[in-house]
Write a structure and sequence with these properties.
The protein is an alpha+beta fold. Helix content is about 30%, strand content about 30%. It is elongated, with a radius of gyration of 19 Å.
C-alpha cells in the first residue's frame, strides 16, 4: 500500500477508535507528488487517478496551445510525452510544501524517440530543468502551474534554430 494511503488509513482508524493522531497534510501532499512522479516514470497512467482530481487544470505558458482541463486530458498528454520520450524520467531535486500547495524543481531526461507535436523524432537526448506548483483539494492535485525553457529544450534536440529548406 502506498505511504499516503497507509497514513490516511491509520488516521481513519484513530478517528474510529477515538484517538485520532494529528495528520500533517503538507507531508501527505508531498508524498502524493512523489508517488505521482513514480507512476509517470513507470508509465502507470491508470494510477494517476490516485493523485489527480477529475477536475484537474494545468497552466503552462511554455505550451499555450495544449489545453489540459481534466484528468483524462492529463493522462493523454502524459501518454503523448511517453511516446515522444520512451525512456523519459522525471527527477525532483527540490520540494517545498505549505498548506494546500507543493512547489517542485526538477529535471526531465529522455531520448526523443517518437513524434512530439509537429516534430519528428530526433534520437537526441534531452536534459531539461522545470518548475511546478501544485494545488491540492481533498488529498488530490486539482491544479498545476508548470514552466520550463522551451528554447533550451529545442536546442538540445537539434530543432532550433530551425533548418532551412533546401535551395534557400
Amino acid at each position: 500500500m502506498r505511504l499516503a494511503r497507509f497514513v490516511s488509513c491509520i488516521a481513519l482508524l484513530g478517528v474510529v477508535l477515538g484517538c485520532a493522531p494529528a495528520v500533517d497534510t503538507t507531508e501527505l501532499n508531498k508524498q502524493v507528488v512523489m508517488e505521482l512522479v513514480e507512476a509517470i516514470n513507470e508509465s502507470r497512467y491508470d494510477d494517476l487517478d490516485l493523485y489527480i482530481a477529475q477536475t484537474y487544470h494545468r497552466h503552462c505558458q511554455a505550451t499555450p496551445d495544449v489545453s489540459v482541463e481534466t484528468l483524462d486530458e492529463f493522462k493523454a498528454m502524459m501518454k503523448d510525452y511517453g511516446g515522444a520520450f520512451s525512456d523519459g524520467q522525471v527527477e525532483i531535486f527540490e520540494m517545498i510544501a505549505e498548506g494546500d500547495f507543493v512547489a517542485i524543481i526538477g529535471t526531465y531526461r529522455g531520448t526523443h524517440t517518437g513524434p512530439m507535436g509537429e516534430f519528428a523524432a530526433t534520437g537526441k537526448a534531452l536534459d531539461s530543468e522545470f518548475a511546478g506548483y501544485h494545488r491540492f483539494e481533498d488529498g488530490k492535485i486539482v491544479e498545476t502551474w508548470v514552466t520550463w525553457d522551451n528554447l533550451a529544450m529545442l536546442q538540445q534536440l537539434g530543432l532550433f534554430p530551425p533548418s532551412q529548406p533546401a535551395g534557400e
